[in-house]
Amino acid sequence: MNNFYSRALRNQTITLSEEDKKNFRQKLLRINNPVSLEQILNKVINQDIFKVIDLLPTKSIDLLFVDPPYNLTKIFNNRPFKQMGTMQYMEWMELWLKKIIRLLKPTASIYICGDWRSSSAIHLLCEKYFIVRNRITFEREKGRGAEKNWKNNSEDIWFCTVSNNYFFNAGAVKLKRIVLAPYRERGMPKDWTEEGTGKFRLTHPANIWTDITIPFWSMPENTPHPTQKPEKLLAKIILASSNEGETVFDPFAGVGTTGVVAKKLRRNFVMVEIDEEYCLYAGKRLQIAEENSSIQGYLNGVFWERNTMNKIKNAEKKVLVNKDDKGIFSNIKGERQ
Ligand SMILES: C[S@@+](CC[C@H](N)C(=O)[O-])C[C@H]1O[C@@H](n2cnc3c(N)ncnc32)[C@H](O)[C@@H]1O
Questions:
Q1: Where are the domains of the chain?
Q2: Is ligand 1 within 6 A of the CB of residue 76?
Q3: Which of 30, 203, 305, 327 has the fewest CB within 10 Å, making it most exposed?
Q4: Helix pair angle (257-264, 231-241), 10° resolution
Q5: Pair 40, 247: CB distance under 8 Å
Q6: Each residue of 309-321: pLDDT tens digit?
Q7: What is residue 107's predicted lDDT score, i.e. its pLDDT?
């Protein structure tokens, strides 16, 4: 029967049934005493980070990813976060950041997200506690236009390390771009290759990311969380700054993007999130990841320019009609990246 209120067919937003809630609730962890890494590895801790931070194991984390509430008034489920002055926001951040340092290995890397309002506080605090290596800025496709201001269309991620002894794998996070002006030297392609229906160049990862799509309703990773990070963004960070089998920690985990991507890329995770419903979504996403470890926009070991995969797939479809060759995109569904 046609339901007037049924979801649009292309809406892939993850939902939770009552059965899901019951199942995933059982898997959530709550801790009241100091724990070892084994006790919390690959688990979602459903508590206030301020209550658990002193109970977590020392020098156990290889990679810290923090996506805290930004310095904006925003409601996370029923919990409001209120915008404050920059100094006040810095004080709030310092309360948890200085305690997280104990958890990090001397070789650990740290990534902290913020928008333009939060970014200066993050920078100053990072300089106080870590070695600041870079500031990544990524373009948000989404964003409301403003009448009397520039549309807020970017976010920052501060990249730091605990020491000079740290791991960084630039080769794992190269970006594949379509070559618009393919240059040849003595008849040979200069720094590009021809594959299937296109000419491509693999470029070094830079500190400006224009290939990120914020999750929205027709993406299978989407949930109702208001500030969910894209899996592709986490994949870049995890691949560049950790090895398989290492441990990633996220103290403001939301619907679990960090853990989901860590799992897909064979890393371990520890996540803390105060809101139970978000933790349940994380549980569901982790279950989905067991069956499907694909990450939109990341294929065959490379990241693709935003929406490039679709263009090439469509071109391939035209070229491959009545041919046996399945082309380089035969193994993925039609998806935006
Ligand atoms: C910006 S969101 C993180 C989104 C996440 N990166 C994702 O992709 O889903 C910040 C999260 O911090 C959670 N949070 C706020 N205060 C917290 C606290 N004291 N302890 C743990 N989590 C908290 C909020 O509920 C919210 O889900």
A1: 18-172+205-299
A2: yes
A3: 30
A4: 60
A5: no
A6: 666 666 555 554 4
A7: 98
Write phi, then psi, for 325 (nearest 5 degrees).
Answer: -55, 130
Mean pLDDT taken over the chain: 90
Q: How far is the CA of 85 from the centre of ligand 1 (A)?
A: 20
Q: What pLDDT is stored for residue 125 in this prediction?
A: 97
Question: For residue 154, what are the β-bridge partners?
Answer: 139
Residues paired with residue 113 on neighbouring β-strands, in sequence order: 157
Half-sphere exposure in the Cβ direction for 23 (13 Å, CA): 12
Rounded to two decimals, the pTM is 0.90
Can you read off the two tokens belonging to residue 38? 């084994």
Q: Give the least confident one: 175-184, 245-254, 291-300.
A: 175-184
Would you state the CATH architecture of domain 18-172+205-299? 3-Layer(aba) Sandwich (3.40)
What distance in Å separates the CA atoms of residue 288 and residue 302, rounded to the nearest whole number? 22
Ligand 1 atom closest to residue 257's alpha carbon, by position in its atom list: 8
